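Q: Could you fold this chain for me?
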Amino acid sequence: MAQELRIITTGGTFDKQYDAISGELTFRESQLPRILGQSRCTLTVHLEGPLAVDSLYMTEEQRVEVAQTCQHSAEDKIIIVHGTDTMCNTAKVIAQTLGEENTKTVVLTGAMIPYSLEGSDAVFNLGCAISAVQLLPPGVYLTMSGRIFSWDNCRKNKEKGIFETLI
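A: Sure. Below is the predicted structure, expressed as structure tokens.
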């Protein structure tokens, strides 16, 4: 049987597109179908997009909604495309919601530069997440810039524009 995974998109920089009229980065549609097609991904992927929000504006209720979506997912391998500013916060809510008896592997990822702009890290980060979710044991993780972090040992260093461990 082919490996199945669920990808939940919440918005974030990953999916933003430049709006020539307003001059701002906005949400229109998820870039995931295009990226998966371009990447020739052969896994069975179920896409779900309950939110399209900048993570700076994500509420605790929305974080709980994402966590519950993971909890009720038929798939045990889940990737969440998320804004980088509060990705660690959502990972914590997911880990607490799934609890110690968790049997799912959840990997959060995002992008520092939108997929729609040149020089984006979106495709690389998504590829790392797809590999990581298949190889890691059950738990909640983040992957950015080729590194994998446990949900409880990471932070975004906004001065350097990278994720790093706490310890």
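A (continued): Helices lie at 32-39, 60-72, 87-98, 122-135.
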